[in-house]
Amino acid sequence: MHPDLSFNEIIKLDRKVEQTNYSFNSNLNWDFENGDRLALNLLYGESDPPAKLFREITDYNGSIPAVSYERERIPSEAYNWEIGGDYERNFNNGAKYKFLFIVNDKVGDTTRERFNFLKLGDVENKNLFLDTSGGYQEKIVRTSYTWNVAQDQGLELGIEGAQTTQDSALLLGLPLGGNPSSRHGGLTAVNLPNAISTVEEIRYEGFAVHNWRINPRMSLESSLVAEYSEIEQTGDIYNKRDFDFLKPKFDFRYDISNSTQFRFTLEKDVSQLTFTDFSANTNERDEDQDTIAGNPEIKQQQSWRYTTYLDYRLPNDGGVINARLFYYDFEDDIGRIDISPSLSQLESMNGNVGDGKVVGLNVNASIRLAMVNLPQALVTAGFLVQDSKIFDPLIDDHRKVVPFDRGSFNVGFRHDVSRWGLNYGINYSDRIDGNRAFWDIDNIFYMGSPSNLMTFVEKSGWRGLTFRLEIINMRDHVRKTERRRYAGYFRDDVLKEIERFYTTDGVRYTFKVRGTF
After folding, report:
1. Is the preceding peptide bond at 403 cis, omega within 30 degrees of 0?
2. For a disulfide at 384, which of 178, 296, 407, 452, Cβ 3.0-4.6 Å?
3. What does the pLDDT average to over 243-271?
4. Rounded mean pLDDT of 80-100?
């Protein structure tokens, strides 16, 4: 719609995804006579989710409405594997030595080709080719030694090393009239800055964990992690940076009574960077913007987190009620930053925007229905309310800290019928309206509440297999979102267009078979 709410265009969109997933997991465990333990884990998975998309576009800006069409084909494939293991040695004096390792690899490739035409059956003209490919690998080794340093006190010292590598490539082809490129779907190749990239992080952590049983009702766990990392980016751009952090944590627990426990934690948190932010990537949230620039200078988000817990257990194993009150103080929060080459060509990318604060309350309850002679039936409920605030220079105003929106709630019921090996239940979840918004340099996107009513029934026993039927989105929920686009900077408040999206995925039926052998 135009700013006066008159129609600009209506787009009817139909998306079909034919997704097939294969996964294999294996766990091998050895328990030795001397008390040692060795475990190995293996995972392999494949995903083949090709998609097709069809748009019918009705333009209301002429004397009469004009209809045109777009079609997209989006072949995609991915696979991943992981091998891990851990070894534990127990000594006669109560000391313990641990060693673990993880090696994994993820590879994915997606191609998006778009065609437009004026009438069904007409010749289709390709107007977009967008190919993304990448690989992500991790190698982690961790070792530690734990022993009792005094009565009711234990100490764990250890070190961890990790190598993380991500390779990414982005190819963009447009019908610009230049030399056609076979690598770009027969269209003209568009030179994207920072489109080919390899990011490697070498990280070392030394850590110490101290456990102290102060008395039968109080305990304190304190830890200190010293992290050093080196991040190197090669490809279209070369950059190399070093980081070091100290991350303390304190966890105090007090058993007020046999049924009530109080807990308080204080910790310094340093987020792991998303390596896709380092190089050019696709913009999945905005169909009018195919790619988004990468930022080789992005830094980790840091925060101090203060959390208070209160747990209460109902008599006779009747259930649990717990509450969590938290306050987070963020530094170098990540959002969009301005990299516009000119006032007539606005552009943004992910970067560090400043400091923010979050406060919230989360309450959950699970109650057994023994009072109505259904001790194997469980009712659950929970709600989350929170508020956050950060000043964003891009919009020259305060906004919420993403993803800490206004909150959510959920209710559920589950009944286990042990004699039949059967359980069934129903769950409903929703967010508080007016929840989450994403701010960009020239637009703001309001996400709707993705409510979901789901029911399931599960049966086990035949040949050791478990069968589960799920019906998801039973209410056929229509998700409503809105994007407001502005002429020039968002902060100048010159509204250009309003886009309202109404989307439904329909009711989804899922049947799962699970077995261990």
Report:
1. yes
2. 407
3. 97
4. 95
